[in-house]
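Tutorial, part two.
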Amino acid sequence: MTARRPRPKTSPDDPAPPARPPSSVRKYPRRRQAPEPVARAARAEAGQEACADRRSMSQPPMTARLPAWSLFAALIAMAGLPIYIHAPKFYIDSYGTTLAAMGLTLAGLRLVDVVQDPLLGWLAERTRPRRRLTIAAATALMAAAMLALFAVAPPIAPLAWFALSLTALFSAFSFLTICFYAEGVTKAQTLGAQGHIRLAGWREGGSLLGVCLAATAPVALAPLTATPFTAFALIFAAFALAATLAMRQEWQGAGAEPAANPFELFRPALADPLSRRLLLIALLNASPVAVTSTLFLFFVESRLALPGWEGPLLLLFFLAAAASTPLWSLLARRHGPKPVLLSAMLLAIASFLWTLSLGTGDLVPFALICAASGAALGADLTLLPAIFAQRLAQTGTPEAAAFGLWSFVSKLSLALAALTILPALQTAGFRPGATNTESALRALTLIYAGLPCVLKLTAIALLARTRLDMTPKDAPR
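Running the prediction step on this input gives:
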């Protein structure tokens, strides 16, 4: 047994020692240790959660509902084709509208269409908190306008009814296009790395399939009904309802910043040097398509002397574009959008150069050219808007207003082509539907294929000199 140490003697004058706290009270309580199996299981669970978080940050979600985006893109594209192809011919054939009156009306409507796009972009930005409601209203207006255009006998003068119906149709079409692409900027940020490219592949693939459906539906319905365009309008209205329901959860409303006037919303996009450069590239890159689409029917009928093949060749062009979009999207995710887009632009130039050598009866070579140029168009429609959307996300630019400018630039190329190409062709002595001299046909070929080469080469030069890795701090404040 250990001997106890003697207690030191104390005097009454010594201070009393501090009281010792009870044994049940501790200044720093001990941490309770979990049993080792429980602690090990907790550490394993925490590690699994951390790995899951890292995987969710690096991989896009599998339930991204991207097919709904393809469906809505197809709906918008189906409304775009009647604006430029079906409606004018339908009214000329059905109501005897003259070519001169129809041409003047279309020129005025196209001018309104170009001018109103920036205003529609401002409207889309201002109504963002109520986007689901405005999308539903615009879709209903577009479906009603399609029915009025094709399924309702004009209650007033046919040309006036044509102008009113078509104005409502392309206004709703433009508003939906702007909102759709603007919403895609937010959607792409939830898809992980290369989200803009992934979304663009689904969106533009659906858009091109919609164009193909609209191009073939009236022809396919003709054996089944005496009024194929009325049937097409009814099918379009049902398709609009289905697409609206499929996309109803994808529209995210957010508060819009107040702006004194519409032009303040466009200032961020126009102040950013890269956004300005991309808008200029878009204008130059869309111009070759505007030229060839304006002259396509004349080239097939007069230069190639292949009347009746316009429809199949046009369908081949759009099918090639639709089929190529998944490939361009995959290549862009692996190698980057810029080199892939430049390669597609070089493919377009090769097809234009081959077109310069064609003559009467060259059906098979021109079919191959349509397939190649259509594939190149698939890259243009997929990658360039994705690059622009990614830049908007980097700089925080109002998306709807910026895509209003993008739509304006795209339609401006069509307007410029209509104002310049046809008068130039007439000056060269070309007469549609008549026997033309060799010099007039050579002028048609040069304008149809030579001018797009120059425009595409200019776009390539600008894109090659453009850095796409700019950060937001590079934009002027």
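Confidence is low (pLDDT under 50) at residues 22-29, 37-63, 470-477. In part three we will examine how such features are distributed along the chain.
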